[in-house]
Amino acid sequence: MAQLLVLAASAEQQVMPALGLLSHRVRQIPAEPASLVNAPAADLIFLDARRDLAAAKSLAKILHTTGLSAPLIVIVTEGGLAAINAEWKATDIILENAGPAEIDARIRLALARNVEPERSEKIHASGVVIDEASYSAKVRGRTLDLTYKEFELLRFLAQHPGRVFTREQLLSEVWGYDYFGGTRTVDVHIRRLRAKLEELDALIGTVRNVGYRFNTESEHQLSDAEY
Question: What domains does the chain contain, in order, with CATH numbers?
Answer without folding.
Answer: 3-117 (3.40.50.2300), 123-226 (1.10.10.10)
